[in-house]
Amino acid sequence: MRYQLVSFPICPYVQRARILLDAKGIDYDTSYIDLDDKPDWFTERVPTAKVPALFVGDTTLFESNVITEYLDDVSSMPLLPDEPLQRATEKAWIAYSDSWLMSLFRALKSENKPEYAKQVNSLLEGCDNARSFIESRLAHGYRLGAFEIAVAPLLLRIRKVPDIRAAFRERFKDSSRIGLWAQTVLSEDAVQGSLPDDFDERFSRFFDLDNPAHPANISALGRLTESAA
Ligand SMILES: N[C@@H](CCC(=O)N[C@@H](CS)C(=O)NCC(=O)O)C(=O)O
Q1: Would you identify the CATH topology of the domain 3-73?
Q2: 11 Cβ inside 6 Å of ligand 1
Q3: 108 lines ligand 1 (CB under 6 A)
Q4: Is the distance from the beta carbon of residue 207 to the nearest atom of ligand 1 less than 6 Å?
Q5: Nearest residue (CA) to ligand 1, atom 17
Q6: Which residues, at least 6 apart from 200, have a Cβ–Cβ distance to it below 8 Å?
Q7: DSSP of 1-18, one letter per residue?
Q8: Closest ligand 1 atom, residue 12 Cα
Q9: E-only strand ranges, the chain
Q10: What digits encode the pLDDT tens for the residues 24-83?
Q11: Do domains 3-73 and 84-223 have the same CATH topology?
């Protein structure tokens, strides 16, 4: 049976499923939909009306973390550990990483610098909380696991926004291992190949990132100078 992945080109949650499918060499078809004009066949089959959805024959799976866990379960070389406590721990961090993606989304959609700064700070705090978990994963050498796949879309997007990238560099400058871990995740073939060719353009357009007035483009210093004038 061939899987059908329902997708939207710049969705980070879809990207998780795509990375896992590609990393494991699983064949699948992709259907792209317009989230502003969802087709009936989609809304009739997907209760949340959100992507990703994975059609497995007549069955519909939804929620990216459930889709990736299912695909991991039914394929060889499992990414999630077997041991129940380790497995639950990794799944807990994966679930927590959803809130980091949400902070990034809110930061990029924010209309003013204070809201943007609040969301970036919440993103930094969340990722900072994962320091010891990431360090513990590196104790036995790097391996692409389920957690890495869950956070790869976030790491890719952080790289695309210079202001947020700089904030991460500053925050994690004392941990070269975490920087190296992030670079290694980003250099995985399945991660590299998971973005559409026109991703940068679509991403910028979706968040209006080329607008000089976007909060990510206004330096804190510039804002202070403006308000002092
Ligand atoms: N918790 C869901 C989130 C999925 C999600 O928010 N997808 C967005 C696109 S990135 C979506 O389909 N939005 C359409 C809508 O909310 O109507 C998951 O992990 O799959």
Answers
A1: Glutaredoxin (3.40.30)
A2: yes
A3: no
A4: no
A5: 50
A6: 160
A7: --EEEEE-TT-HHHHHHH
A8: 10
A9: 3-7, 28-32, 53-56, 59-62
A10: 999 999 999 999 999 999 999 999 999 999 999 999 999 999 999 999 999 999 999 999
A11: no
Backbone angles phi, psi at 202, to 5 degrees: -65, -40
Number of continuous H segments (helices) and E segments (strands) in the chain: 12, 4
Report whether residue 102 contacts ligand 1, using a CB cutoff of 6 Å: no
- pLDDT mean across residues, the chain: 94
Q: Which residue has tokens 């209309």? A: 111
The residues that are catalytic are 11
Instruction: Identify the architecture of domain 84-223 in CATH.
Output: Up-down Bundle (1.20)
Q: Domain locations in the chain?
A: 3-73, 84-223
Closest CA to 108 of 187, 186, 165: 165
Q: Which one of 14, 50, 156 would you pick to mutate in the ligand 1 pocket, going by the greatest count of ligand atoms within 8 A of its CB?
A: 50
Condensed to tens digits (0 to 9), the pLDDT of residues 177-216 reads 999 999 999 999 999 999 999 999 999 999 999 999 999 9
pLDDT tens per residue, range 86-133: 999 999 999 999 999 999 999 999 999 999 999 999 999 999 999 999
Q: Quick one: pLDDT at residue 154? A: 98
Q: 13 in ligand 1 pocket by Cβ < 6 Å?
A: yes
Cα 6–Cα 91–Cα 70 angle in degrees, nearest 5:
40
Alpha-carbon dihedral sign for residues 178, 184, 187, 189: negative
Token reading at 179? 């920087």
